[in-house]
Design goal:
single chain, 288 residues, alpha/beta, Rossmann fold, 11-stranded mixed beta sheet, 7 helices, 11 strands, 22% strand, globular
C-alpha cells in the first residue's frame, strides 16, 4: 500500500544543518543502543517530513570510529523515517572523480574493524542480504537531485570504508584502487548495514574532497584542503537535498527493502533473548 515519505537525512562532513526546513525543532530521542550523535532536527519541506541527524554531532565533535551508528539508525527509525539519504565527504581513488564531483555510491568494501555492525547477535540471530547494499530508487533520485542543483555527479561507484581516523598510506591507496574501489571514506559502514537491518532503504551521496594519496606527483591529503572543498560541496549538497525532496512522488510506493526481515530471522522463538528483543523494538518490532 502506498503511504507518505518521512526522509531521514544523515549529514556528514560539510552538512550540519538543513536551512530550508520549516517548523524545525531539535528533539532528543532516547535509544536502548546508547547515545546518538546528536538530537534529531525534525521538520518539513513542503509536505514532506524530514528528520536530520548530523553524523558527527554539531561542531563535528565525534570521531569516525566513535560514532554510535546503531543508536543513530535506531533514533531515525523511532523518528518515523521511511527512507534514509546519507551525505558524506569522500576521497577519490579515480582520476575522473575530481574534487568537487559527487558520487552516488552503489557498492561497498568494508575495511572497518572496531565497530559494532549489527543490531542482532546471540539471543536473536538474523542475516540480511547486502548484495545490493543501497536502494536503487533513492539512489537514482539522489543523482538527479545533484544534477538539478548544478553539481557534477557520477551515478554509481564503490566506496571503500576504512577505520581511520588517519588517512591512508600510499600503499593502501594503491591497493584499494586495484580492488576496484572508486572512493574512500570512514563512516558509511556499518551505517549502510544497519539501515538494511532496520528495513530503511538507504542511499549515499559522496562529496569528493580530495584525491586520497595514490597520485605520486600530488600533495598528500591535509585537513585544511579537505575543509575548503567541503565548504564548496556543502552549498551544492544543501541545494540537492531541496531538489531531492521537491521531486519525490506524492505517495511512497512500497519498497522490497521495507520487509527484508521477513526472511532474515533464524533464532527459534522459544530461544530468543527477551532483553535483546526489547532493544530491537524499533528496528525489528514489525517481525518480532
Amino acid at each position: 500500500m502506498a503511504d507518505g515519505w518521512t526522509i531521514g537525512i544523515i549529514g556528514g562532513s560539510g552538512l550540519y544543518d538543513i536551512e530550508a526546513l520549516e517548523d524545525r525543532q531539535w528533539i532528543r530521542i532516547n535509544s536502548p543502543w546508547g547515545e546518538a550523535s546528536d538530537e534529531v532536527l525534525c521538520g518539513r519541506i513542503g509536505d514532506v517530513q524530514l528528520r536530520f541527524l548530523p553524523r558527527h554531532g554539531r561542531g563535528h565533535r565525534i570521531a569516525p570510529s566513535d560514532l554510535n551508528a546503531r543508536a543513530n539508525i535506531d533514533v531515525l527509525k523511532r523518528a518515523g523515517c521511511t527512507d534514509v539519504l546519507a551525505i558524506s565527504a569522500v576521497g577519490s581513488l579515480r582520476e575522473e572523480l575530481e574534487p568537487g564531483r559527487f558520487v552516488v555510491v552503489d557498492q561497498f568494501i568494508d575495511r572497518t574493524k572496531s565497530r559494532p555492525s549489527s543490531f542482532f547477535g546471540t539471543g536473536m540471530v538474523a542475516h540480511v542480504s547486502m548484495a545490493e547494499p543501497v536502494c536503487q530508487r533513492l539512489s537514482a533520485m539522489a543523482g538527479a537531485a545533484v544534477e538539478n542543483a548544478g553539481g557534477a555527479v557520477a551515478q554509481g561507484g564503490t566506496y571503500l570504508a576504512m577505520e581511520g581516523p588517519q588517512f591512508s598510506t600510499r600503499a593502501e591507496s594503491h591497493l584499494y584502487r586495484q580492488w576496484g574501489a572508486d572512493v574512500i571514506g570512514m563512516t558509511a559502514m556499518p551505517e549502510a548495514k544497519l539501515c538494511r537491518e532496520a528495513e530503511l532503504p538507504y542511499a549515499l551521496v559522496g562529496m569528493v574532497t580530495d584525491y586520497d594519496c595514490w597520485r605520486e606527483d600530488a600533495a598528500f591529503v591535509e585537513v585544511s584542503g579537505v575543509i575548503e572543498q567541503m565548504q564548496a560541496n556543502g552549498t551544492t549538497a544543501r541545494k540537492a537535498v531541496e531538489q531531492f525532496i521537491a521531486a519525490l512522488p506524492e505517495t511512497r510506493e512500497p519498497s522490497p527493502l521495507d520487509t527484508v526481515l521477513d526472511h532474515a530471522l533464524i533464532t527459534a522463538p522459544d530461544a530468543r533473548d527477551p532483553a535483546l528483543l526489547a532493544k530491537l523494538d524499533a528496528v525489528a518490532g514489525r517481525v518480532l
